[in-house]
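Our preliminary data section would be incomplete without showing what the modeling component actually yields. Below, a chain of 333 amino acids is followed by its predicted structure, encoded as tokens that our downstream tools consume directly.
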Amino acid sequence: MKIFSSTLLVVIFICFFYSSISCDICGNYMGITPYNNKNSISFIHRYRVFNGYRYYQSQSRFFPANAYRVMHGGGSTDTGYIATNVHSSKDFESYKIFELRAKYFISKRVEVNAFIPVLNNKTETNNVYNTITGLGDITLSGGYHLILPKEENNIKQKLIMGIGIKLPTGFCNYLGNDNLRLPFEMQPSTGSTDALIYVNYIIMNSHFGMSTNMSYKINGQNKFHERVSNSTTDFLSLFYKIKIKKIAIYPSVLTSYEYTKGIVTNNRLDKATELNCLMIGPGLDIYYKSFSINTAWQFTTAEKVNDGTLKSVGRISVGINYSFNKIEKKKVI
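Predicted structure:
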């Protein structure tokens, strides 16, 4: 068993550093999850921003004007998307996701999950401002717990492997004020049915631990003959447990890697939409009884940026979680 565990750990590290391809919307990182398998309901909010052009701005901003808050008047107009060659430091793309998640154990080793997102996408290019809010694509998944943690062991492990499907429940044909369809990246839904496979592994002693989460997504094509190239999202978290009475605090360092070749339209790849990005930053998870708060703030540390495209600045994630046990059936005497 010790040989198997050591080998598995090495394989997980190799998979993390050599895996490829990702989409911020489909990443299913849930923070540092406790070892006791429980049903749960969660609300997750994520904010991702792109700002600054390669060779034009040396510094990018996490909160450029109007990227997070709702615009209240000013110089920009809310019209259709217009391409531009003017590399303004005011240009940005921001993506906010408000997601309801539910997890339910149908047996000791089998879990099912549902993810229901609402997206708010914004962009400003050459003083042309657009914002779209709408229901995203619902994801359903099921996971099998290959390794369950044993309370008597000093080193505890958990390994989950699962599959899922993303359904085109959102709308992918929003128009601008000029009655032209907004770009694919701005739509709350991809309009396609996608398949997902994922692996989650956690190892921990009494204080220190490591969590890895990897997902690979096979993306379909929508009615406009658009699709995102197959993608992966990979997370690695190193954390430390601090116990204060009934409160468990987990400060952590979270690294994530994303890669996708980009958007394919009518069988032609748009290389400008490629995403190849490494992010790192602090995280803090707090657990008290059945409630938990999961937070992370990541900054882009390495990225391949094509000419004329905005740079990734980073991502913020905040989650509130409520866990509850399954209702046990009473024995009939």
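The chain has one domain: 2-324. The first strand starts at residue 39 and ends at 53. Preliminary results of this kind motivate Aim 1 of the renewal.
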